[in-house]
Design a protein that fits this description.
Layout (H helix, E strand, L loop, with lengths): L1 H4 L14 H11 L4 E6 L8 E7 L2 E7 L6 E5 L3 H11 L6 H23 L16 H35 L4 H5 L11 H5 L1 H4 L2 H11 L4 E6 L8 E6 L10 E5 L6 E5 L6 H14 L5 H33 L8 H22 L4 H31 L1
Antiparallel strand pairs: 1-2, 1-5, 2-3, 3-4, 5-6, 6-7, 7-8
Helix pairs in contact: 4-5, 5-10, 5-11, 11-13
């Protein structure tokens, strides 16, 4: 989606990659007053690297062609970041949003299990679709059929969501075990540290990391953010399924000596579980194929929620002749206003989103709310009148 929205993020594949030093040098030239926070390798051969640069208090996502090393553009908000934050904490601050999302992992798991318990002999209905008994019978059977085939995804999303809850609350010390702190080094002189990120030989550092972990493909590079913090590199190796952070290499930024190391093939069970959670939850572990499968699974679950709500409300209206949304209308309206206000606060203050991007988001939001009002309020209201 970012490829569609930002032409500057596109890259034409080549067998020859630009050196890391060249890429970092070009970023420093493009943002002479900026501080490189984080370098992330391209997520696909047709995409640029994304370098996070902090300049004058604002984070910029800089698109660097991995083959030419050229800086092709920058933005303060990517499509991926917008939806990641929306999914991650609903733009609700103070950790409230994070736990609101994570609590629903328990709700999803409970609803999935109870659905299977109450839907008798569901395993015999995996291919059962009613076609000749009218529209209502067809839609009901389709809803159940999609629900059955969505069960593996619902369980996977809920279990990994519960794991995130355990990690965030540090139950059993999981967060401490799976996310070890960076080792400390002897503090570098403040004068040297001021220009350190520009003076580091990143090619030499990556070569040292590859010697420490044979077969390592560097994916993320974090220059030191404090005088006593080492250079940090992570990436993927021959170990399948785990995320980049399963392999961690910490190097002294001046001598390139290894001061800390974590290999994916030697990690503990708790760390392994923590490092497979993201690939399984988001579905990127198998490339484009699994991304498409996870997208379909996620859309199916979302459709089930909406059609389930509509069916329940429609049944209530048919039986009672009353629309049951009246009591909830003011509560829903307040919640919508709060969530929308938080979202625009983050977009304007944190991301300094452009007027064009704000306009596009606003139009899509209006269409989304209009569709919700039409389907769940206006249409049901007409049934009450009838």
């Amino acid at each position: 989606m970012d490829w569609l929205l930002f032409p500057e993020i596109r890259a034409e594949f080549s067998e020859q990659y630009s050196s890391y030093n060249n890429r970092f040098h070009n970023v420093h030239n493009a943002f002479p007053q900026g501080k490189i926070l984080y370098w992330s390798a391209s997520a696909a051969p047709y995409l640029c690297d994304i370098v996070h640069v902090l300049e004058r208090g604002q984070r910029h996502y800089v698109f660097v062609n991995p083959y030419t090393g050229n800086v092709q553009g920058a933005t303060t908000l990517t499509f991926q970041r917008f939806f990641r934050d929306l999914h991650y904490f609903l733009f609700i601050p103070f950790q409230v949003g994070h736990f609101t999302v994570l609590i629903f992992a328990f709700v999803l798991l409970i609803s999935t299990i109870t659905a299977l318990l109450f839907y008798k002999k569901w395993w015999k209905k995996l291919f059962q679709l009613t076609l000749r008994k009218g529209k209502l019978a067809f839609y009901r059977s389709l809803h159940r059929l999609v629900g059955l085939w969505s069960v593996p995804f619902a369980i996977l999303f809920s279990v990994t969501g519960i794991w995130y809850f355990i990690e965030r609350t540090n139950i059993g010390g999981v967060s401490r075990i799976a996310n070890p702190r960076s080792p400390k080094i002897e503090a570098i002189d403040s004068t040297v540290f001021a220009t350190l990120s520009r003076d580091i030989d990143y090619d030499r550092a990556v070569a040292a990391a590859k010697r420490a972990i044979p077969g390592l493909q560097a994916k993320d590079i974090l220059p030191p953010n404090k005088p006593d913090v080492p250079l940090y590199i992570n990436g993927i190796s021959s170990v399948p399924l785990v995320r980049n952070r399963a392999n961690r290499v910490f190097l002294h930024p001046s001598t390139y000596e290894i001061v800390g190391l974590q290999e994916a093939k030697k990690i503990s069970a708790v760390t392994w579980l923590n490092d497979i959670a993201d690939p399984l939850h988001f579905g990127y572990w198998g490339g484009l194929l699994t991304k498409v499968m996870w997208f379909i699974g996620g859309m199916a679950i979302s459709a089930l929620v909406l059609t389930g709500i509509w069916t329940a409300l429609k049944r209530t209206v048919s039986k009672t002749g009353k629309q049951m949304l009246g009591v909830w209308k003011p509560i829903n309206l307040v919640l919508v206003i709060l969530l929308t206000g938080f979202m625009y606060y983050f977009l304007v203050v944190k991301y300094a989103t452009s007027l064009r991007a704000l306009s596009v988001i606003s139009v899509l939001l209006v269409l989304f709310f209009a569709a919700g009002w039409y389907i769940f309020d206006y249409r049901l209201g007409k049934r009450v009148i009838k």
